[in-house]
């Protein structure tokens, strides 16, 4: 994985340097162009990341499938906003997480989910006036 | 000098208003709680709560965020002492002696010493900031574009990552931050760069979703596989049994003063931060302290050195931030982003153009530090409960806060996507020991670096000589060389030491 990360960084730096040189211009009329910084830093990033290919260090902590459960939860929350709106989606996320992932009882999950959602609603919607997106069911 | 006292008194009239005292109290309480929760640190706290402060007046908002920052330093010691898990990285050295003291039944004394030392360190830091801030700003007024560019380069060569295990990885993340900061419209030429045709990227990657993703969401992904056991926390710590006797105070106060001064000096260095401050002060105390043999085995001086230094360093990082616009740590990089969003440009002119803001903030630190130490001591029993909140509840709750915080910045779902994507990227980088704070530091500083460097090159008709044309920039360049060489020198030094200790093996 360490080498894979280095490869991604090389590609990232390379893309920035390439676009900087070919599209934005490195040096125009005796002065640096928009591509000046991307080219210099892009090339330097590639060179340093290439050094990383020499070693394949083990991770400092193990990456498991369960690490990505919050990502799936967040993506499901994004997907459900168009139907349920943001506040209901947050409530559903919290209750379902506590029920399914943490194996809480339905009573405990509901109390925690409802109280957290209420606090978020009060702070963001009522106090800070953030216009939360609503879904097709109107919330 | 008289002028500084006058400004400070004016600042107190701002700091002592009802809303600013309330902001300092809320910031202190939130900071202590976030700092005490294992796995969350001041940078995560400030990142998550930054969107909440945008509806406040800038000075009130920054007072609250500063409170969270130094409150986090106080709180970090609780879990370090009680469960041997530092709430935040600056408290790593606190755990060495603090937990050993707790195991000997002296948890209360360790907590009291930590709070008292945090207060002493913080006060030293604030006093030095009061005099150093205007002085640095005065020096900063002499800076032209070339000097500013070199100064920012110096900040990017942060001591923090140079002293880390892998300086190469620190440099790589610094560069990734620079590249990400070039997304959007180029401020000098007005042309679009790396927007991939997206209108959402025209003004660049949004700072708040990026910070929440990199520090908040990535932390959640990490926490899920490290569920922390909090069962072995002692039942009760009473205030009475926590009080220190005369002998203990004689040990705590000198160690706190020494470490406060050293920690503050480290905090003022660009990019060094509280972790480096507490580490160096701990090592220093181990060399010069009266009780050096007991250090690491439950010496109260160890707790004091670490806690005094990390508070002094946290306050110290405000000096380069306010007077030069250079953050001294990851957390102050987030604060810099916040200040820019309020339309303020930290730098030498801030002291001249917004004195009520700067002095209001500095004066509020005196008040806030006092509020924080009182709160930290009084809420010990409550904090014992907070530390017990299981990660199983914290994970979904913080996920929702990340989600709503990213959305509320511009009321845009695009920012939520940015938060998720940057969270995953930061998680992978952290899993392979790539530090994230340098990325944030460079992301915040790059627009100024690019503008200053290109302005300087325009002035010199493209001659690089302009970057070494004044005594200031030559000094700064020499410091950069010194910083870059330091890991190599340290490696050689360690090798030499190893040879000395074990000549046969080598």
Helix/strand layout:
The complex is a heterodimer of chains A (139) and B (506).
Chain A: H1 2-24, E1 27-28, E2 31-32, H2 36-52, H3 69-101, H4 106-127
Antiparallel strand pairs in A: 1-2
Helix pairs in contact in A: 1-2, 3-4
Chain B: H1 2-15, H2 18-36, H3 42-53, H4 58-83, H5 92-103, H6 107-140, H7 145-156, H8 159-162, H9 167-181, E1 184-185, E2 192-193, H10 207-223, H11 239-242, H12 246-268, H13 273-288, H14 300-316, H15 318-324, H16 330-341, H17 348-353, H18 355-378, H19 380-387, H20 391-410, H21 413-431, H22 437-459, H23 471-501
Antiparallel strand pairs in B: 1-2
Helix pairs in contact in B: 1-18, 2-3, 2-4, 2-18, 3-4, 3-10, 3-16, 3-20, 4-5, 4-6, 4-14, 4-16, 4-18, 5-6, 5-14, 6-12, 6-14, 6-15, 6-18, 7-22, 7-23, 9-22, 10-20, 10-21, 12-13, 12-14, 13-14, 16-22, 20-21
Pfam families (chain A): TctB
InterPro entries (chain A): DUF1468
Domain DUF1468 (chain A): 4-133
Descriptors:
heterodimer; A: 139 residues; mainly alpha; 2 domains; two-stranded antiparallel ribbon; 4 helices; B: 506 residues; 2 strands; globular; membrane (chain A); transmembrane helix (chain A); transmembrane (chain A); DUF1468 domain-containing protein (chain A); DUF1468 (chain A)
Strand order of the largest sheet of chain A: 1-2
Strand residue content of chain B: under 5%
- Most extensive protein-chain contact, per-chain counts: A-B, 67 and 63 residues
Number of strands of chain B: 2
Alpha-beta content class of chain B:
mainly alpha
Order of helices and strands of chain A: HEEHHH
Form type of chain A: elongated
Shape of chain B: globular
- Strand percentage of chain A lies at under 5%
Quaternary class: heterodimer
Distance between the termini of chain A: 43 Å
Rounded radius of gyration of chain B (Å): 22 Å
Number of helices of chain A: 4
> How many beta strands in the DSSP annotation of chain A?
2
Mean pLDDT of chain A: 89
Protein name (chain A): DUF1468 domain-containing protein
InterPro entries (chain A): DUF1468
Organism (chain A): Mesobacillus campisalis
Domain DUF1468 (chain A): 4-133
